[in-house]
């Protein structure tokens, strides 16, 4: 059975000066999930998520993410999101891949604040760090800048959770192909260099 890959992207709520003073922490307000088998996408999910600790989105958040208050109010609860994540990650065999480490940090923080168990297990991969290491970049590269460096375009619109998860999946496949291409072939053995049957015939 082929190993499947679980690509995740979340969008988070954002504070203003008033909320920062009230102990604000970011909550997941949109989720995009992708399951892929090698380079074939087999399942996707997208939903807004209703914040609970700080339920009213700031103007800064709505402006930056282009998400409206009504959209998150009609979204699923965070509890339901964790159930979906656990269901998709039921066997724990997938590599869980995100661009950057904030998605997992915010998920873990939201679980702690709501008293819910962290729903994911498996190998966690920060693709932005893999990309940085592979290309020898000094600084981490943004998701859409990375795909443009490949001469490609991102899927859909940046800062839409499912579009960013699909773009992460696309970059992962591009990087893996480059890694395979860059692997050094095994050095030839003496048997590869010399045709022993002809050598023995000459010696006979």
Automatic annotation (TrEMBL):
Keyword Chloroplast listed: no
UniProt KW keywords: Exonuclease, Hydrolase, Nuclease
Domain Exonuclease: 4-181
InterPro entries per UniProt: 3-5_Exoribonuclease, ERI-1_3'hExo-like, Ribonucl_H, RNaseH-like_sf, RNaseH_sf
Domain of life: Bacteria
UniProt xrefs under Gene3D superfamilies: Ribonuclease H-like superfamily/Ribonuclease H
Pfam family, one: RNase_T
Name of the protein this chain belongs to: KapD, inhibitor of KinA pathway to sporulation
Record organism: Bacillus badius
């Amino acid at each position: 059975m082929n190993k499947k890959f679980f690509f995740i992207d979340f969008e988070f709520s954002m504070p203003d000066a008033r909320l920062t003073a009230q102990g604000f922490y970011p909550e997941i307000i949109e989720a995009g999930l992708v399951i892929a088998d090698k380079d074939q996408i087999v399942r996707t999910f997208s939903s807004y998520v209703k914040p609970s600790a700080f339920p009213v989105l700031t103007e800064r958040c709505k402006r930056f993410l282009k998400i409206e208050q009504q959209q998150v109010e009609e979204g699923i609860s965070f509890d339901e999101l964790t159930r979906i994540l656990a269901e998709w990650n039921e066997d724990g065999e997938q590599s869980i891949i995100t661009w950057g480490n904030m998605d997992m940090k915010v998920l873990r923080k939201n679980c702690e604040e709501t008293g819910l168990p962290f729903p994911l297990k498996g190998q966690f991969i920060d693709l932005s760090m893999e990309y940085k290491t592979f290309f020898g970049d000094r600084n981490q590269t943004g998701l859409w800048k990375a795909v443009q460096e490949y001469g490609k375009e991102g899927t859909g619109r940046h800062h839409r959770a499912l579009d960013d998860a699909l773009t992460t999946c696309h970059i992962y496949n591009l990087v893996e192909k480059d890694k395979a291409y860059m692997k050094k072939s095994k050095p030839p053995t003496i048997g590869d260099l010399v045709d022993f049957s002809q050598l023995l015939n000459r010696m006979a």
